[in-house]
Amino acid sequence: MLDKSEYLHPDKECLSRQEIEALQLERLKATVKHCYNNNEVYRKKFAEAGITPDDIQTLDDVRKLPFTTKQDLRDNYPFGFACVPLSKCTRLHSSSGTTGNPTVILHTQKDIDEWANAVARCLHMVGLREDDVFQNSSGYGMFTGGLGFQLGAERLGALTVPAAAGNSLRQIKFIKDFGTTAIHAVPSYVTRLHEVMEEQGVDPRKDTKLKVLVIGAEPHSEEQRKRIENMMGVKAYNSFGMSEMCGPGVAFECKEQNGLHFWEDYYIVEIVDPETLEPVPDGEIGELVLTTLNREAMPLLRYRTRDLTRVLGRTCPCGRNHVRLDRMKGRSDDMMVLRGVNIFPIQIEKILMQFKELASNYLITLTTDADNDNMTVEVELEELFTDDFQRLQKLQKDVTRALKDEILLTPHVKLVPKGSLPVSEGKAVRVVDKRTVYQ
């Protein structure tokens, strides 16, 4: 076991399994009562399930609770799941609306403080301290990755560099000039950053003070992680978070790099079969379901994340007994995660259908080229005018620009003759994922 200095919150990180479960049960009962007493949506859900808070007496009783879904949040947009008055809330984060309403998550100041503590705990676990310089190459605003890691690094006491996403030359200048020791970025961007370093003659091993990479927000293989570590010359630790659970800080790898530690004093973790919704045995892949245990503004009960993973174990050589899960294997719904951005096919369709020159048939292909995830959108033309090159080129540029504005990434757009794309019997196949991480 590591010495106490390796734990930021030893009173929570060093708990035995028995102590973890006792704390979880105490917090679960309080959370269920909080939801029932202060939220009409949950009261209706409880009534439909035929239960009351008094029915929750053991941790196994969590299975009596109704599931909460992203659609529930959309249907009760914007504040239908609030459990405190808005006057008690200090911030909200929101996803982009894809099929209608976005999902909105509310936070009290206590929620924000607890979020900062969780992220700080993660960073401390991999060796970061107050004398480190933490550069956050993540989007800010409504995206929780920016402010989440900002809060955690500040709570840790590190000097924070809110570099935000993109502009690789500026990122590299900051790394060198500020003595950056740790960077947070999506895996594909780390690869791009290294490419620019090579172009600029910068050797991350010799010319920087980097010692830790924090990666996450998009699926990646162990092979890609190792390649990143070899390129940058430092360890890369996997992070997991989602806005519905606050953001980053839900789970993190320790120095052993043998799975994501989910902080069970903050969450109850279930892995269920996405079809039957029944628990699956440890080691079997299923859908991750999370219940928040210490949130005031907007606790969520049995939230279906749609992420697919499996339990690896509940002990670790690092000394922590918080459950370890495998990195996410994909999703049980149709959402695509590309370079850390959540995208739905319906977003693509919505834009394409705005152009009268385009037909209704389209195909989205995801590929990995040199460790970078890319999207190609092939769409049929309503009429054939390939002889008018200037008109075709302008249409392609206009479609590309409109898609970028919607999904915040630039896809490769191919305009093809009508009838050239495959037509499926039954449900149309809109997405073909050829990325190596899913092989």
How is this structure best described in words?
With 439 residues, the protein is an alpha/beta fold. It is built from twelve helices and 21 strands. It has helices spanning 10-13, 17-38, 40-49, 70-75, 109-125, 144-156, 168-178, 187-199, 204-207, 222-232, 345-352, 389-407, and strands at 89-94, 104-108, 133-136, 159-161, 182-185, 212-216, 235-242, 247-253, 260-262, 267-272, 286-292, 303-309, 311-313, 324-325, 330-331, 336-338, 341-343, 358-369, 372-381, 412-416, 431-433. A nine-stranded mixed β-sheet has the order 4-3-5-6-7-8-9-14-13, with helices on both faces. Strand 16 and strand 17 form a beta hairpin. The longest helix is centred in the N-terminal third of the chain and has 22 residues, at 17-38. The model has no long low-confidence stretch (mean pLDDT 91).
Strand content: 15-25%
In angstroms, what is the radius of gyration? Answer: 23 Å
Total number of strands: 21
Helix amount, in percent? 25-40%
Which class best fits the helix and strand makeup? alpha/beta
Count of helical regions: 12
Mean pLDDT: 91
Shape: globular
Distance between the first and last residues' Cα: 36 Å
Give the strand order, joined by hyphens, for the main sheet. 4-3-5-6-7-8-9-14-13
Q: Stretches where pLDDT falls below 50 for ≥5 residues?
A: none
Biggest sheet features: 9 strands, mixed
